[in-house]
Write a structure and sequence with these properties.
alpha/beta, Rossmann fold, five-stranded parallel beta sheet, 5 strands, elongated
């Protein structure tokens, strides 16, 4: 059994291949028409194999997909295998603004719309990561006991979505700001007041998911520490701040400064 069958409409082929590549680069196995349905094969038999010999079906969700006639049996077969969603047999990845209705509308999707490449990769892999509970105990609120972690930089891969946020070069400026902030020991060790921490928590809870994810990738906390989307933003904020103010964290002042740079880019 392969891990995933990637179901898509031909208009979204680049997204389907990118998602499959990200998964296979991280140890998963996929079955995708663009790579596995070879000339001379029987299309119906290949689809039957895809439906019965994979653990999960991934849907590249868009208006193209929802309006296509031949994609419906693909996701319907996965839905029928797990109608209550207990095994998450059907997992949609929304790559274009659309509003699924009916049975598809009841399935929680991973939203890739508007994300930059690093955010999208984390969202794809986060959908299949173990539950958000951290492997080690969170830092005790009364004292700093968080263990030290090595920061891991993301790996560059070809991405079909937007690689920048426009002519302002905002993504580049945030990356430069993050490099500067994280390499400044004085800022990392700087303490902020209880009231400042409360304001910081409130600000993190109120930013858009895209802005939160941009901050998350700039800080690069240990993998699995911060719950992935679609977890509640308050839970993600709590986990991020707990790491930041613990031993091995970047410090709350660094979070404060980077959030300010994201909300007010130069």
């Amino acid at each position: 059994m392969k891990d995933f069958f990637v179901s898509y409409n031909k208009a979204d082929k680049t997204w389907a291949e990118w998602i499959a590549f990200v998964l296979e680069a991280n140890g998963y196995t996929t079955l995708i028409q663009a790579w596995d349905f070879r000339p001379g094969g029987n299309f119906i038999q290949e689809m039957q194999k895809a439906a019965t010999e994979t653990e999960k079906t991934l849907v590249v969700l868009s208006e193209n997909y929802l309006k296509a006639e031949y994609t419906q049996p693909e996701w319907a077969a996965a839905f029928a295998r797990d109608p209550r969603g207990q095994n998450r047999t059907l997992v949609p990845f929304r790559v274009q603004e659309c509003k699924p209705v009916g049975l598809m509308g009841q399935v929680i999707y991973v939203d890739l719309v508007g994300l930059v490449e690093e955010e999208a990769r984390a969202a794809v892999l986060g959908a299949f990561a173990p539950r958000a509970k951290p492997a080690q105990a969170p830092a005790f609120p009364g004292r700093e006991t968080q263990p030290t972690y090595e920061r891991v930089a993301p790996h560059p891969v070809e991405f079909p979505g937007s690689l920048s946020t426009g002519a302002t070069g905002r993504s580049t400026s945030i990356a430069q700001s993050a490099e500067s902030v994280l390499s400044t020991p004085a800022l990392r060790d700087k303490k902020i007041s209880a009231s400042e921490r409360l304001v910081l928590s409130q600000n993190l809870n109120s930013v858009t998911p895209q802005q939160f994810n941009m901050l998350l990738f700039a800080l690069s906390p240990p993998a699995g520490l911060v719950p992935p989307m679609p977890a509640a933003q308050a839970d993600r904020t709590f986990a991020l701040l707990g790491w930041a103010e613990g031993l091995g964290g970047c410090g709350l002042a660094a979070v404060q400064q980077l959030l300010k740079d994201i909300l007010n880019p130069q």
